[in-house]
Amino acid sequence: MSAAIPELKQFDEAELDRVFTGLEAEVAAQARTLTSGESLEAFRLHWLGRKQGRLGQLSAAWLKSAPAPAKPSLGVRFNQLKAQIESLLQDSLQQRQAGSRGSGLDITLPGAALRIGAEHPLVKTMAEIVNVFQRMGYSVSLGPEVETDFYNFEALNFPPNHPARDTQDTLVIAAQEQKPLRERLLMRTHTSPVQIRSMLEQAPPLHLVIPGKVHRNDAADATHSPVFHQVEGLCVDTNITFSDLKGTLDHAMKAFFGSAVKTRFFPSFFPFTEPSADVQISCIFCAGKGCRKCKHSGWIELLGCGMVDPAVFEAVNQRRLQMGREPVYDIRKISGFAFGMGVDRIAMMKYGIGDIGLLYSGDLRFLEQFA
Ligand code: DAH
Question: What are the angstrom distances between the C-alpha of 224 and each of 227, 342, 348?
């Protein structure tokens, strides 16, 4: 596409018209031959290249030899020519892109590979758990990951300095010391604060599942990650009993893991439930016979639960009063149960994942297995 620089003898408008019409025709003719990415780039370099570009060479030569009165007109014409070249380049580029998306004609172009995403195993597991409860009439409630001490601890009946706070190594937000304890910000250590937030917003009856991310100051190893996930549940109504809790969780475990799964409940302690229980399911790997996965016990510990402690309802009522709302959680009429489970452990069990870190590594070789 290289061409000599013609010498211009005359710079009157008629001559410039003739010369530039010729150049425009040359540009247009070349543009029609641009079928490949390489020819497009060659065309661009030929005309607009910084050092050897024809446009630059022409304008340098002609502007130098032109008499002063002709220079403005020459300048305008070069600018128009440049705009024409750029817009042709733009058009060709767009046509090629449209073509590579499947609507163009150049079937020799490589197709634009659309990489199909896949649900992350954690998100998938969380959605499946939530779905089990939605089918029982529960709705989904969400809350913030940056919480106040009040929602994460105080309203859940963890008094200041209560030893139960030590069991949840809390990641606190910096520079909160000047605030009253209850207003200090921290990363929520569990999804339970959303119980409180929900009861402040809604009057009973409540049937809620609360999926979400939680944070603890745990050193990372094969079974611990400072970030992990929980699904919380809260059911509050009149006449809710421990039998409702047992029946609901037993049904949920069978719906999630298969109808052969059995559940059993052990006494436990959480400040916000009384009585509290830990729930085990019969080992899904050995059907309860005993294997390495269940440490030969036949059972796998899966979640914590209990009847909502009246102190929690009282804290909610008090706060509702402060907010100008009716204290509708009357502990003489209302009762409820709550539960919380770790999603990561369930996902690891379900997919045979040996290291929790894989769930957070962003490693495509791991993630692609779930596509
Ligand atoms: N929040 C507890 C934890 O993170 C789990 C839990 C236990 C939640 C019992 C509950 C419950 O709602 O009733 O260890």
Answer: 8, 11, 12
**CATH code of the region 121-370:** 3.30.930.10
Name the residue with the closest Cα to ligand 1, atom 5: 340
Q: Residue 198: CB within 6 Å of ligand 1? A: no
Please report, for the chain, the start and end positions of each structural domain, with discontinuous segments joined by +. Answer: 13-102, 121-370
Q: Which two tokens stand for residue 125?
A: 């597991």
Q: Is 212 in the pocket of ligand 1 (CB under 6 A)?
A: no
Q: Output the residue whose Cα is nearest ligand 1's atom 6.
A: 340
Query: Is this model's pTM higher than 0.85 or not?
Result: no
Neighbours of 330 (CB within 10 A): 12
* Residue of 232, 265, 279 to mutate, ligand 1, most atoms within 8 A of C-beta: 232
Which residues are registered as beta bridge partners of 339? 233, 305
Q: Which of 270, 280, 312, 337 to mutate to test the pocket of ligand 1 (most atoms within 8 A of CB)?
A: 270
243 three-class SS:
helix
**Residue 196 near ligand 1, beta carbon < 6 Å:** no
The CA distance from 302 to 273, in Å, is: 17
What sign does the dihedral 88-94-97-101 (CA atoms) show?
negative
pLDDT along the chain (371 residues), means of 10: 75 91 90 85 90 88 90 92 90 75 73 85 97 98 97 95 77 94 95 98 98 95 96 98 98 97 97 98 94 94 97 98 98 98 96 96 92 85
Contact 128, 237 (CB under 8 A): no
Q: Are 132 and 145 in contact (CB under 8 A)?
A: no
- Nearest residue to 283 (alpha-carbon basis) of 296, 274, 273, 272: 296
342 within ligand 1 shell (Cβ under 6 A):
no
